[in-house]
Here is the input.
Amino acid sequence: MAHLLKGMSFALRVNHKKIAGGSPAERDAQLSRITALRERFAAQGQPAISVDTKKKELVGVFKNPGVSWNREPTAVSDHDFRSDAEGIAIPYGVSDIQANRGTVFVGTTYDTPKFAVDSIGS
Here is the structure.
């Protein structure tokens, strides 16, 4: 079958992100307002922070894209089933824009506004 498909100019291909969705007309106005507020707060010596959640990660013996120095490879599960996880790590980054420093907090419950606020308060 593969031979026939190749003869008809078919090939195995991956998706390419080429269709731009554009952005809402209000987006430039929103970003301009945020920039003006941040600059005003900075001029007054007030903090401006950025808070962002990152990709949730399964906790357990799962494959990950990183590498580490070891004498032997680490054996991991052959499937990344959520039901096999010891938990789920939810990283939140809080960054102080004026001071150019930040902290990452990792929770294990739910990604909630309360967790975001608790991260800011820490």
